[in-house]
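Reopening this ticket.

The earlier resolution said the output was attached, but the attachment link was broken on my side. Pasting everything inline this time so it's all in one place.
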Amino acid sequence: MDSTSDLTSLPIGSNGYTKEIVIDLISEDQRLVRELEGLLGVVEPGSEALPTVLVALRDALRAERTAAYAVDAGADRYHTTFIHGVGFAEPPPVLAEVFDASLPPAGSRFGYYDPARPPLAQRNQPMRFSALGLTETLRALPLAGNGTLWERLGLSEVEWEQARTQLAAYSLGLYRRLGLEHMSQLRVLVCEGDTLLGWVGAFRPEPFTEREQQLLHALTPAIQRRMAMDRRLREAGLLGSALGAALEVLGRPAWVVTFSGRVMHTNKAGKARLEQDVQGLTTQVRDCIRSPPGTGPLFSSGPLRTAGLPDHYLVLDPGPPAIEPTAKVPVLTQRWGLTAREAQVLEHVVQGETNKAIALHLGCAERTVEVHVTHLLNKAQVESRSALISRLAKGPHATPADGRVRTRHVAMGDPQADFERVMSILSLHGLLGEDGGLRPDVCLVSVGDHFDWGHASERERVARSGLRLVAWLASHPADQAVLLLGNHDLGRVGELADFTDATFRAAQVEADRLYRGDDTDAAAERDFIARWPGLPTVELAARDFSAWNEEQRAWVEHLLRARRFRVAHAAGASLLVLHAGVTREDLDVVGLAHERWADAPAVADALNGVMDQAVAAWTGGPLVLPRLHHPGNAKSGEGTGIFYQRPSLQAEDAERVRGTPRRRFDPRRLPLGLTQVVGHTRDKRVRELVSPGPVRDGVLRHLVTDGTRVDYAHGPPPTTGAREAVMVFTDGAMREGRAEDFELFDLDARRAVPLDS
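Inline output:
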């Protein structure tokens, strides 16, 4: 972040400081030095220490802006370790992103120094630079004193030429973006030995004076001590997420505190205790570390001492164990050889956070997080974030209900789309919080299917994306994210229940070769299903369930047994949400009394009860829900039941709509007085089977019947009476069209959810 001209410095010695510190500071400057040294000593360790110091440094140097940053050399490029700025218009996350984007490839000089090994002449040596806009950036200007400019910088002439070229390529745009090209600069590379702790400097339009350079020089030892201490704290983990994860292993509320009682780190249980009574708990913590063990409700192990660091104390509140997935982070950090930053990112990843949310937490660029996540996946030897989360959680997992009141209830139909697109749609409708999860006041009902979309060339990506979505939904409390089963979800434990990854891929290779849509050779298909009797058609392996894998099956099974995947959800007294809809015949076979067919909670309980009994009795093979869902196979043909069926008034379906389970139903047989919100069927298919007309994707649609007539139209449903049945269709082909055009359904108001304004 250096300018390229008019540099002045002080003579240095072998230790990185001046041989003779002959600095004649006036009394006012001496007072400033004492005050700043005092501030550097009293500000407690933490991410806010440097910003606090930079504010005081700006005043002392009469600067317009001050900054501090450090970089790490990655495998292919530099990455921002931290950056703080005072006086910049950009907020910290934007400043970090802009700065990170300007960093050069690894091995390049950054300005006039190599971050991996700064030249001895520049270590702990304040230097003044002229504004870029006042000089020719690629020409060395003469300096007073002995030696050339590059010699004063500790560079060879070749290194100087390389530095000027790289500076022009990587720094000019950054200076212009931040409005610094017309500002002079005073900076120091704060080092410990040959290790760069960070760049600290100031900017203003007027040139800095020798007096101000001497003032910064006098302060550099205190800044170095401070930055060295903070670095040791990071390395020791006292400020890192690895310690937070280690605290989770304790399974009880725990805090790492200073002697004053300030909490430096805590686990989730400890944070919850703080939120309940911060004043009372702070008093208890202070009393604990100042009293003999066993004399109060909390327990302390005594001071945690590390050379060069202030004492910290571990304080525990005895309570029931509560192991979290993050408990494995310290072990895996050592096993996989993670850097401190990768361990921090891992802790956030296993909590289901998006890259954007992680970047905000860590104060770095989203692109930097992406690089760390890629390194994590490679080191863990997994292909997806979901697989990584599963590994840390000892398999699939889900968050139980938390009992919070939700004021917005929204249905999302068939999210068969890339995970990022699903997140984009939810964000556009104002349903996501700053952490990348659902807002606390939102209850989202996800109407399956959650898997299988796209082309054959995308299968691996689609498989990861679908699992990522399911894992993200399951990471929310059960009463905040409701997962409803679709036929694709059940296919994981139905038609494909007896397959392994290897056997399914073998079958799919054959299916890809044979499948030609309606032109598939019938004889070849018969031979295929004879070899693979679990499959009813070639199409199922080649297209319908094309992105299946064993990990998905494990997740679906877990969520079924944990009762997170449900058949139906009652969103109101007469408002039911489920994948494909139910008719009077379906409710009759489950034994629900006729007078309760419009009672959504009763209907949901009956349908979910059938599934829960079937899952409890299920020990292997395809999962069957008696009278409601039968997976397909070579013997019986395609799957049938309430997860497959669609409304049809076609004459050729007249016989197929009579019984149950089936693949078609007569919409005039819908339970009167009940509104059903479904996915499964796009506008095109309804137009083909029920009501010819213009087709649109992305929009909500509705069907209203009184048992005789059937009215179908785009838009949310109108007000209806007790003698009418309503079906709202939410499958708008999520991966097609513009995300801004995709409508969600407001379950509270029975209308489309508006975009966030």
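Reporter confirms the inline version is readable. The CA atoms of residues 632 and 638 lie 4 Å apart. The longest strand covers residues 195-204.
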